[in-house]
Each structure stands twice: as structure tokens, then as C-alpha cells.
Design brief:
Layout (H helix, E strand, L loop, with lengths): L14 H14 L5 E2 L11 H12 L12 H15 L8 E4 L2 H12 L5 E6 L4 H8 L3 E6 L10 H7 L4 E7 L11 H12 L5 E5 L15 H4 L7 E6 L12 E4 L2 H12 L7 H12 L5 H20 L14 E2 L20 H12 L1 E2 L1 E2 L9 E4 L4 H16 L3
Parallel strand pairs: 1-10, 3-4, 3-5, 5-6, 6-7
Antiparallel strand pairs: 2-8, 7-8, 9-12, 11-12
């Protein structure tokens, strides 16, 4: 009999973390590896936010807090939801966790029973299906396509819903594709959800501020207010505020659900870092002036990467509306052989060979549930992106 839990056998380690670790290992061995696998901005945390953390330390705000966040941060979340989306929440409807991942996980642990289904559009963030499995549920994957710019249609959502469906997980702008749903596209999905009152909506809005070319972000409960009572709106400060290591995420939703999530968190991690919470208060309440210039840099980087990848025969790279990822197809490269003699049968083969033979780390599409593709994070310097894309071009040109 195995000592380890059977539940653990249902899940796999994060492929994005694994690829980042492999790149770091090769770099430590002296290889000039360029990492395009991590979803982490290369910008520093804004100074006002760092100053707020220092002030919190100086004031002795280093003790335990309430399990799911200090009142000041919950109030800041409420103000943000009203300011940005016109949604009214009270602090009792807000949960603060150790990163966005924990808030999602807490909600699934608090609600899923064996046999419950969760609809997840693919490509998806790698952790969604595995978190569902850990919580005892069943992921139902609804595949999109490059032809629809990786966006789920109303018909696809309708087809995926069954009497066992408990949640629909929605992410826009998307990790890994950067695809953003317009208000009309989102309205079509909410109309389907209105016909299925047993289905709750878990919306991951982590990339809301990273929106380009006039794309206007909106969230499901904002588009369809009638979904308010069965929507958990999840977000955090990691991406737009360059605070990945601070580990603060939050969610707003119906009070009974938030209370259940609090119970899970109180018996697992308890409160997020107190100093990080005070930094997040400043992030949400303080100046937002840095967002626009940061986005200008992201647009420049996006356009550089999309342009250079689309110059490659066999690769097709759509232009995303947001986040800091592109998700090119390598359908035209399947079956080809690398200079080292390895046949590219899958996108995992491609990513592995690209790392081993060209010193560029990307994440293969199968990790996100849709192949043959790979994900590039362009949240790094222009120089590194140009060099990496040149290496990808040379690697692909040498395929036979």
C-alpha cells in the first residue's frame, strides 16, 4: 500500500515551474539560457508600495492578522471593485490569500464534492485542472482554437455544461494566450450561464490592467449583474503591480462562500504575510500612474515577439489583447528533425529541443491543454526577447 495519498497521484507538478527550473539548472552549468517561461514582470515593485512595506515594518505591523486579511486591505479591495467595475462588496465578502492561486484553491476546496464538474476553457492556466482534481472534482475541458483567437464561444460553453457542473472558470486576458474577451463576447457567455442557474462563475482577472490596443477589460458580474450572487471574482497584485514575490491575491463574492474559504484558509496557511498586506493596500489605493507606461513597454515587446515569430515558416502567432504572453502554433513544424537528430513529434519535443539545442526556455502547449503550440512570456527585456527570437528563428530554419 502506498504511503502517499491517492489524491496526489491525480495531479502533476507545474510544467511552467519545471521548465523554469530546468533553465536555471542549465544556466548554473554555464549555458547562456534565455528564459521565456516564467510569468513574471521584470519591472521592480513601484517605490510607493515598497515604502508602505517599510513603514509597516517600522510600525511593528508584523504580527498575525485575521486568517483571510486585514480590514484595511479588504476595504481597499471593496473600493477597487466599486471604482473599476461598479460592483458593491462589503469586507465580509472579501477573502485575501497568499497569492491568487490560494484564493482559487480555497474556493474549490470549499465547494467541490466527488462527481462535481468544472468547465475550463483550453488553453488554460496550468493549475486550474490540477486544483480541481486535488479538491475532488472533475475538470471538463472545452477546447478553443487559433481560428477563434483562443476564445470560447457560447455554443462551446453550452455543450460543456451538464447537471453535474458546479463551476465555470473564466480567465481574461488569458494566461497562456493573452486573449481578451470583449464585452459582447462575454455577454454571449453570460447569457448561457443565465440559463443554467446551478453553475457558478470563478473569474480570474489577474491580468485586467494589462490590456492593449484599446481593449477594454470587463468582468462577468459587471456585464451581467444577475450573476453577482454566484460569481467569485478573483484577482491580485502580482502582475500589474510587479509584486509576484509578495504573494497577495484576493477574491470577492457571496458571503457564505467567503466564510467557507476562510475556514479552509484558517486550517491551512492562516493569514498572508502581514507586511505584504500593507504593501497591497498601497498598491490598490495609491497611484496607478505607472500602469500606462508599463503597458507601453509590454506592447512594444509583444509586437517585437509577434513579428519575429511570424517570420518563421511553420509558426503562426496571433496578436493578443492583453497579459504578457503569446501562444504560437507550430503545426507546420511537426514531423521535422532538429540538427541534433531529434524528431519533433509534439510541442513538448519542440520546447525540449529548443532549450537543449538553442538555449531558449519556453513552455510547451500540452501543459496548457491545447497543442501543438508553445507559450512565450515577453515580460523581459527587449534585448533578451530579440536575441531569443533570433535563436528560435535560427533553430527553426535548421529543421529538416
Amino acid at each position: 500500500m502506498s504511503f502517499l495519498s491517492e489524491t496526489l497521484s491525480r495531479v502533476k507538478p507545474s510544467p511552467t515551474i519545471a521548465m523554469t527550473a530546468k533553465a536555471a539548472e542549465l544556466r548554473a552549468a554555464g549555458r547562456d539560457v534565455i528564459g521565456l517561461s516564467a510569468g513574471e514582470p521584470d519591472f521592480d515593485t513601484p517605490q510607493n508600495i515598497k515604502d508602505a512595506a517599510v513603514a509597516a515594518i517600522a510600525a511593528g505591523k508584523t504580527k498575525y492578522t485575521a486568517p483571510d486579511g486585514i480590514p484595511e486591505l479588504k476595504q481597499a479591495v471593496c473600493a477597487k471593485m466599486k471604482r473599476d467595475h461598479g460592483l458593491d462588496y462589503t469586507p465580509a465578502q472579501v477573502s485575501v490569500g497568499t497569492g491568487g492561486k490560494q484564493t482559487l484553491y480555497n474556493a474549490l476546496m470549499a465547494t467541490l464534492n466527488e462527481g462535481d464538474e468544472v468547465v475550463i476553457p483550453a488553453p488554460y492556466w496550468v493549475s486550474y485542472p490540477d486544483m480541481v482534481l486535488l479538491a475532488g472534482g472533475t475538470p471538463v475541458i472545452a477546447e478553443t482554437s487559433i481560428q477563434s483567437n483562443f476564445k470560447l464561444t457560447a455554443g462551446q460553453l453550452e455543450a460543456a455544461i451538464t447537471p453535474k457542473t458546479k463551476w465555470f472558470i473564466f480567465n481574461s486576458p488569458s494566461n497562456p494566450t493573452g486573449a481578451g474577451y470583449s464585452r459582447d463576447e462575454l455577454k454571449a457567455l453570460t447569457e448561457v450561464l443565465m440559463r443554467h442557474p446551478h453553475v457558478w462563475v470563478m473569474t480570474d482577472d489577474m491580468y485586467e490592467h494589462l490590456a492593449y490596443d484599446g481593449f477594454e477589460f470587463c468582468t462577468p458580474a459587471q456585464v451581467e449583474p444577475a450573476l453577482y450572487d454566484r460569481t467569485l471574482t478573483c484577482n491580485g497584485v502580482s502582475k500589474a503591480y510587479a509584486m509576484t514575490g509578495w504573494r497577495i491575491g484576493y477574491a470577492a463574492g457571496p458571503e457564505p462562500l467567503i466564510a467557507a474559504m476562510r475556514k479552509v484558509q484558517s486550517q491551512s496557511t492562516s493569514n498572508p504575510c502581514s507586511v505584504s498586506q500593507w504593501a497591497a493596500v498601497e498598491a490598490l489605493n495609491g497611484t496607478q500612474e505607472f500602469l500606462a507606461p508599463n503597458n507601453e513597454m509590454f506592447v512594444r515587446r509583444r509586437d517585437l515577439v509577434v513579428s519575429m515569430l511570424n517570420e518563421i515558416d511553420g509558426i503562426s502567432c496571433p496578436v493578443p489583447e492583453g497579459a504578457f504572453y503569446v501562444y504560437p502554433s507550430i503545426a507546420g513544424l511537426i514531423g521535422k528533425t532538429t540538427p541534433a537528430g531529434k524528431v519533433i513529434g509534439t510541442d513538448e519535443d519542440f520546447a525540449t529541443a529548443l532549450l537543449e539545442e538553442a538555449d531558449v526556455a519556453v513552455v510547451f502547449g500540452a501543459a496548457f491543454g491545447l497543442s501543438p503550440n508553445f507559450r512565450v512570456s515577453y515580460a523581459t527585456s527587449d534585448a533578451a526577447l530579440e536575441t531569443a527570437c533570433s535563436r528560435i528563428q535560427a533553430f527553426c530554419a535548421a529543421l529538416t
